[in-house]
Amino acid sequence: MRELNAPGDSVQDVSSTCIESYRDAALKNRLRSIVPVLSDEASRFEDCVLTSKTHTIPTADNVGGVVSKAEMLDIYESKFVKGTGRPYYDKYMSLPTNGKCPFCGIGTVSTLDHYLPKSKYPALAITPKNMIPACRDCNLGKKRTFSPQNSEEEPLHPYFDDVEQDIWLSVRFEVAGKELVPTYFVRKPVAWNDLLFRRVENHMVLYNLYTSYAVHAAEEITGRSGIWHVFLDRCGEDFLAASFHDEAVSREQLFLNSWQSALYRGLEEHIDFVTQWLRL
Questions:
Q1: Which residues lie below 8 Å from residue 114, measured CB to CB, with a gap of 6+?
Q2: What is the pLDDT of residues 203-239, one digit of tens each?
Q3: Of the four listed, 106, 127, 149, 210, which is most buried by Cβ atoms within 10 Å?
């Protein structure tokens, strides 16, 4: 998971921009009346994210008994995404470096994901810190399974959770036929508490990252095994291990826990096993 700088806009800023473009005076007045509610819900949401308590926020089908869920969804779709709020949408979509999805680090950002779904939490439909740029796979995959019942099941939030200070993503290997098969897993750093460890593990499951990372790593192994044979034959095991080390260090300059960083750390860590495989 890659940390992002949180949007500095308030829900009052966003809602005002969207609401003022409505022509229906009665609707506009109703929408204006709930802005304080939207602000309170945004504050509660942030407090709950920081304490891993978003699962305690109740779902709703209206906002303040004044505005329906359908009307809030219309604000998002017709005003925020397609109307006067579009500059905010574009700004949030541009937050990730190189357009990479912060949840997986693989896909290209193509949508805004609501950390708490707008269909269940309409008061958070246009809350800036509830909207995170994501790739389609992460957004849709999460929607199919997202229903945290406790703090451990709450996924990481790119605006609030920074897990790039410690190395936690690791790889082990096995040989199947003539293939070197990688398996990713989370190794708990000493500085982590059990809650953070479980949240990271569940984040990996929710976004199907164990499988996605393994698929990308298997392709990397297939594509690079030829040059590894050359390094081993011409320069020996120590040189091969050093090349894995250098590759890992280079990858870690960008992200400590990318699938690439973990792969090359694992190849160096299991150099004896990798060497045996190359000599099959």
A1: 121, 124, 125, 130, 131, 132
A2: 999 999 999 999 999 999 999 999 999 999 999 999 9
A3: 127
